Amino acid sequence: MRYLYWSLIILFTAAIILFNLQNLDSVTITFLNIKATLPLALLVIAVYVLGMTTGGLLTAALGQWIRGVRQPDSASESDRNA
Predict the structure, then answer these.
(1) In the chain, how many domains are there?
(2) In a domain, 23, yes or no
(3) Is residue 24 in a domain?
(4) Which DSSP category does 73 fall into?
(5) Among residues of the chain, what percentage have pLDDT more than 70?
(6) Which residue in 14, 18, 42, 19 sits closest to 29, CA to CA?
(7) Residue 69 contacts by C-beta under 8 Å, 6 or more apart in sequence?
(8) Tens digits of per-residue pLDDT, 31-42?
(9) Helix residue ranges per DSSP H, 23-73
(10) Which domain holds residue 67?
(11) Within the chain, which residues score under 70 in pLDDT?
(12) Secondary element (H or E) of residue 24
C-alpha cells in the first residue's frame, strides 16, 4: 500500500510540474484598477488555493449557523421553566 501512495504522490507532482511548464504564458488581470501580470499557471494555482480556503471557511460557517439555529434559545427556555 505504501508503494501505491508513493506512486500517487509522484504522479500528482509530475502532473503539476507538467502543467506549470506548459502554461508559462503571462496574463494580465485587473481588479479595482489594480493590474497584475503573472504566469497563467501561478494564477490557476492561486485561484484554486483561494477557492479551497474560502470554500472550507464557508462550509464551516454554514455548519455553525445551522447548529445555532437548531439549538434552543437558552433565554426563552429559562422563561418557560420559571
Answers:
(1) 1
(2) no
(3) no
(4) P
(5) 88
(6) 42
(7) none
(8) 898 898 988 888
(9) 40-70
(10) 40-72
(11) 74-82
(12) none
